[in-house]
Design a protein that fits this description.
The protein has 296 residues and is α/β, with parallel strands linked by helices. It has two domains: 3-216, Vaccinia Virus protein VP39 (Rossmann fold); 227-295, rRNA adenine dimethylase, C-terminal domain (Helicase, Ruva Protein, domain 3, Orthogonal Bundle). It has helices spanning 13-23, 40-50, 69-75, 89-95, 114-122, 139-148, 162-169, 179-187, 227-237, 245-253, 259-268, 282-295; strands spanning 36-37, 57-61, 78-83, 102-106, 128-133, 155-161, 188-196, 201-202, 209-216. The strands form two sheets. The protein has a seven-stranded mixed beta sheet with strand order 4-3-2-5-6-9-7, with helices on both faces. The protein has a two-stranded antiparallel ribbon with strand order 1-8. α3 links the parallel β2 (57-61) and β3. α6 runs parallel beside α8 and α9 (227-237) packs across α12. The protein is elongated. It binds S-adenosylmethionine. S-adenosylmethionine (SAM) binds at residues 32-37, 61-64, 67-68, 82-85, 88, 108-110, 133, 135, 138. The site of S-adenosylmethionine has 23 residues, from β1 and β3.
């Protein structure tokens, strides 16, 4: 089948979306983050960034009316698309009627057993990537679910709010660096693919967007003895950004009068207690949490 994005003849992508939506009497729900992408170039960039091979599978979260699902179906061996809005299911049945390799599942991606679904629908695929224009009201919970469940994924290529993409892809010493940056870089290598203006969506969102590619790591870049505790330490260190790392950790993990014990731990980790959480690298957080774990 032709691997190029579909040419809709004399009807532009925005007009096609409007036509489908109005013919089905569909009204957009802001509460479900329904901003449909109508730019063929951006769709192409998203699909290209996923680097899908003919034996690969794609998991799409929130297919909408199927604008991204179609090019995915042409590139991948199989596509599993999870859509929460029941009203979109008959529309997807129509727009994707000519593809036999697409499976639509109706449900909330945050509640579905994704591991089981991937095994069931994409189990025959060589590698699986997530490719989606995410609903912005749940961007972080969705990405964290994909990462924390340690699903067997190769790439996660998602359109998200630019501000969240900046936080995911930033490093120590920058204003956007925080617990989300560390969580993302623990599981993946993040890369900003492109910045996207709000004009390419129907209806237009209130914020600018970005496509980010998260290349899932085979193993984390640091060794931590207890993952949950490592992330607790990171969260605590950023609890109040204007406070020093020592004061934030003291408030969360130590009793009154234990400052000198904490300072001994920080010294052992080679961390100056007056530093702020945003200056510590992932290696320093790993070292600190390992030492804290042994001494608490
Ligand atoms: N992929 C389409 C596109 O690019 O035009 C639509 C993207 S729109 C930003 C987000 C889609 O996610 C909507 O279709 C919405 O109904 C769906 N959605 C919202 N919350 C969801 C959830 N918790 N689980 C699955 N789908 C969800």
């Amino acid at each position: 089948m032709d691997k190029q994005l579909k040419d809709y003849g004399d009807i532009s992508a925005p007009n096609r979306t409007k036509e489908i939506v109005s013919r089905h009497g569909f009204s957009f729900k802001k509460s479900l983050g329904q901003n449909f992408l109508v730019d063929q170039n951006i769709l192409r960039k998203i699909v290209e960034a996923a680097e899908l091979g003919p034996d690969d599978g794609a998991l799409e979260i929130g297919p909408g009316i199927g604008s991204l699902t179609e090019p995915l179906a042409r590139e991948a061996k199989a596509v599993l698309a999870v859509e929460i809005d029941q009203r979109l299911i008959p529309i997807l049945d129509e727009t994707l009627a000519s593809y036999s390799n697409v499976q639509i599942v109706h449900g909330d991606v945050l509640k579905l057993p994704l591991g089981d679904l991937l095994r069931q629908h994409l189990g025959e695929c060589e590698q699986v990537s997530v490719v989606a224009n995410l609903p912005y009201y749940v961007t972080t919970p969705i990405v964290m679910k994909l990462l924390e469940e340690k699903l067997p994924l190769r790439n996660i290529v998602v359109m998200i709010q630019k501000e969240v993409a900046d936080r995911m892809a930033s490093g120590p010493g920058t204003k956007d660096y925080g617990s989300l940056s560390i969580a993302v870089s623990y599981y993946c290598e993040p890369q900003l693919v492109t910045i996207v203006p709000r004009t390419v969506f129907i209806p237009q969102p209130n914020v600018d967007s970005a496509v980010i590619k998260l290349k899932v790591r085979d193993r984390p870049p640091v060794q931590v003895e207890d993952e949950a505790f490592f992330f607790d330490v990171v969260q605590a260190a950023f609890a109040q950004r204007r406070k020093t790392v020592a004061n934030n950790l003291l408030a969360r993990f130590f009793g009154k009068g234990e400052r000198s014990r904490l300072e001994t731990i920080l010294a052992e980790a080679g961390i100056d207690p007056v530093r702020r959480g945003e200056t510590l690298s992932i290696d320093e957080y790993a070292r600190l949490s390992n030492i804290m774990l042994r001494s608490l």
